[in-house]
């Protein structure tokens, strides 16, 4: 890390350099899950593959940007793991609409789910797999994912420090 920090790269370049390789690896994992869903379970796909790939990329980069923000803010690995569990895994599983319907949640949690990338990604995936949907049906969710990415990456850049403690 010391060698990396001594190079003349900008914080944006460093953060993108941390996010993009893992996004590519994640896209391969999504491709495998897609193949299993289509070929193994015969789940139909009715939407646009281009929008699906774009949504997957936005979803992955949003959570990787969240992880990068946690790594910039946290002082130790133990703290970063706890922050990731509390801010990422638990809300994603419980509040994204994956397990419990968002419409049946109390109003506070319905609004809180709007900051979770998984909520928007699940809406896009369900729409693309189950309906013959186009851009008009998924653009609000895509816009939300873009906004979340923008916010998380910018906050990471602002919090980034060139010194090691």
Word description of this protein:
The chain is built from seven helices and no strands. The longest helix has 30 residues. It is globular. The chain has one domain. 75% of the residues lie in helices and 0% in strands. α2 packs across α3 and α3 runs antiparallel to α6. With 165 residues, the protein is mainly α.
Rg of Cα set: 17 Å
Average pLDDT, rounded to a whole number, is 86
Structural class determined from secondary elements = mainly alpha
Low-confidence stretches: none
List the topology elements.
Blueprint lengths: L1 H4 L5 H30 L8 H25 L3 H19 L11 H6 L4 H14 L4 H25 L6
Outline:
With 165 residues, the chain is mostly helical. Helix content is 75%, strand content 0%.
From the structure above, extract its key features.
single chain; mainly alpha; 0% strand
């Amino acid at each position: 890390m010391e060698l990396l920090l001594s190079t003349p790269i900008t914080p944006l370049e460093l953060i993108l350099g941390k996010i993009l390789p893992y996004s590519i690896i994640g896209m391969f994992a999504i491709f495998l899950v897609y193949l299993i869903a289509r070929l193994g379970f015969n789940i139909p796909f009715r939407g646009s593959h281009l929008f699906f790939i774009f949504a997957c990329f936005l979803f992955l980069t949003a959570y990787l940007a969240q992880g990068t923000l946690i790594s910039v803010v946290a002082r130790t690995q133990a703290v970063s793991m706890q922050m990731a569990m509390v801010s990422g895994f638990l809300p994603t599983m419980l509040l994204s609409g994956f397990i419990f319907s968002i419409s049946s949640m109390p109003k506070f949690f319905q609004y809180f789910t709007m900051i979770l990338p998984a909520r928007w990604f699940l809406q896009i995936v369900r729409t693309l797999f189950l309906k013959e949907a186009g851009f008009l049906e998924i653009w609000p969710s895509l816009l939300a994912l873009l906004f979340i990415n923008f916010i998380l990456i910018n906050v990471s850049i602002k919090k980034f420090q060139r010194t090691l403690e």
